[in-house]
Fold this sequence. Notes:
Elements: H1 7-11, E1 20-21, E2 24-25, E3 27-28, H2 39-52, H3 62-82, E4 90-93, H4 96-111, E5 117-121, H5 130-139, E6 142-146, H6 156-163, E7 169-173, H7 185-194, E8 198-202, H8 214-217, E9 221-225, E10 236-240, H9 242-247, E11 258-262, E12 266-269, H10 283-299, H11 301-320, E13 325-327, E14 337-342, H12 347-356, E15 359-360, E16 362-364, H13 369-375, E17 380-384, H14 391-409
Helix pairs in contact: 2-10, 3-10, 4-5, 11-14, 12-14
Bound molecules: 4'-deoxy-4'-aminopyridoxal-5'-phosphate.
Amino acid sequence: MSKALDAAALRLQFPILNREVNGKPLVYLDHAASSQKPIAVIEAQREYLMHYHANVHRGVHALSQQATDAFENARTIVQHHIGAEESCETIWTGGATDAINLVAQSWGRAHIGAGDTILITKMEHHANIVPWQMLAEEVGAHVEAVEVLENGALDEEDLAAKLAKGPRLFAFVHVSNTLGTVNDAKALTEQAHAAGATVLIDGCQAVPHMDVDVQDVGCDFYIFSGHKVYGPTGIGVLYGKRMLLEAMRPWRGGGEMIDAVSIENGTTYAGLPHKFEAGTPHISGAIALGVALNWLKGLGAGAVMDHEMMLAAQARKGLSSIEGMRFIGTTSEAAGVVSFVIEGTHPYDIGTLLDSQGVAVRTGHHCTQPLMERYGIPGTVRASFGVYNTLQEVDTFVAATVKAVRMLRG
Ligand code: PMP
């Protein structure tokens, strides 16, 4: 069993948590959108910029070699963190959105054609909807979505029926950013593979909260963003099985991704992973993401989940006393997400009043409009917890919500 988290001690590593908002101590509960950064991550970027900034892969000089070593070492950290077989299966991207677009435009264009179906779910983030719609529009395919049950679980009957129609791809979210639903990635992958579909998993909300082993899950592609996992913005990861990635055409052309370029004879491409990494990458971002993942691993994934579940359970318990409370997504607290609407109030008004009390939550559709449509609501208030949140902060949040509701109801 892993050691329980000491949130109070962890907070000392996050300078931003000392600040006040609207004259009140900041209570930051917006981790599903982005997490704050520990000093180790901030320092890793600073160290690179102060002492060994140079472009990677291009120079024989010392700085370039040092930068390249750190950059490639970070790739190996990611590989081990998600259990990929080889480091070349880990591609740096600008983020999760960028990674999904890469797969849509490279693998998708080669494997999805007129009349084909791309299967997603109704709980996808727009990042795992729109790239597929754009591809479908271009090639004459169509996008179908598995229904979501009232409690926020995937509708298994609907899934089985839609898989039986033989989609080319099943792209689904590991953990929903709006509902907190944790999908059984391994079982869904097996089911989709049995139906002949390739599998892409959006792991943005899973990697910050739980151990992920892509080989155990068995998926073909797995993606996540750095900034939700205590790392920098502008960096993300595409994992793909080597055989698939090798067969894929590069998506973006330019420097870094070539073998040889000739006007007369055309261009040959570099091998993996570089053929998907055209141009100068986000070097400090990659290095610091490696540091963030090691830092997170040091806390113990079991301890992280236990802590966040405890916070989410306490929040749910406290909020339940509010008249007219409706939780959206009630299957799991494992990802530390509590989403809700309150009768007679608008999520935006609750969010604004919480902000005036120093509490940062997200309100709106959370880039999951089909889900809002499913529940017939304009948006939710979403509190999402991180490793340094405390039970005291949960109580502050609940009290602030009670106060906001009282004010709005007059
Ligand atoms: N998928 C999920 C489930 C997310 O929560 C998010 C970010 N809210 C994304 C994809 C997109 O991530 P990014 O904006 O970092 O590309």
